[in-house]
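PROTEIN–LIGAND DATA SHEET

This sheet pairs a single protein chain with one bound small molecule, pyridoxal-5'-phosphate, given as SMILES. Inputs appear in the order they were entered. The predicted three-dimensional arrangement of chain and ligand is reported afterwards as a token string under its own label.
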Amino acid sequence: MSKEKIQRPELSRLTPYIPGKSIEEVGRELKLVNIIKLASNENPLGSSPRVQEAMAKESRNISLYPEQHSAILREALAQHLGVTADQLILGNGSDEIMLLVVEAFLNAGEEAIISRHTFSTYEFVTRLMSGVPILCGTPEEPSPLEEMAKRITSKTKLIWLCNPNNPTGTMISQKELEAFLAKVPPEVIVVIDEAYCEYVESGEYPNTLAFLHDQKLENVVILRTFSKIYGLAGLRVGYGIAHPKLIASLALVKLPFNINRLAQAAAIAALEDQEHAQKSFQMNQAGKTYLYREFEKLGLTYQPTQANFIYVQTPRGGDSVFMDLMKQGVIVRPLASFGIPKGIRITIGTAEQNQAFVKALEKISP
Ligand SMILES: *Cc1c(COP(=O)(O)O)cnc(C)c1O
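PREDICTION REPORTED AS:
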């Protein structure tokens, strides 16, 4: 029997995730050295030095299974965030929590409201569980909350929000979010992905933890990650924050040992080094100011950002600008797969990386 006949029909409707090109890949293909990757919103400072120490120490124990529910890390996180441990679930990256959400809540045929211009995994996991994505928004307004609220029907089970939004760097404010949540019925789950919250500079950014607590909301999940400001993308640690009842549902579908020992030890150490996080934030602020100015000099339209990346419009199209920059040794992210063919997304790097990127940009006339 052919593979198409025996595999679930949903699988042929899935679009595989397209990651940023890796330094290794480009080095191999173009025989380049000194490649700069500004394509996946990784921390250009890397992780805290304390992480290396913690992992070296923990490496003695790798013949033993890890903590089943990451109890020690969960306790440390609970303290850091000011929530209780039963409001937290750890995932193999926050990607895994996205999967747990659909496994726990989404029945086949139910609808999920999603921005058309956001992180593609929301649509991927929705389709994986035979859910129906309802797509909204434009690159200028990726999360049109009023429209999203109007599209809630008796079939709606999930709403995915990314705040700040990847790839536009735009933000939903506290006021906007509160007004929106007031319109969402309690049987609809709202996922708010805050992967970049630590980089936000706006005072209008929602304090979702306080809001969840005050309103005793049982239908909202916040997603956060150690992949971005904490610099642990390669280790895969993310988490969900929600009412204990919602967390209990997610825990039912989680596989037992989803975070390995090295990753648990690393995340605890990363959390203890808030100075490193602060340094990363400040470097991002300085890089942002520099890049805004350079984009203005070059006459390029960019979207002011609340995250560690900037969405830039390129007159001649994202794919061709991406290819030309790559030949100059700088990897950025073309945004065609986010439904923005004219756009690129550039991760804010170190001062040297940003300068090298601008030099490359000047050479290629975007
Ligand atoms: C990078 C990113 C994540 C993080 O994913 P992990 O699986 O934790 O590495 C989540 N959401 C968005 C929108 C992101 O850009």
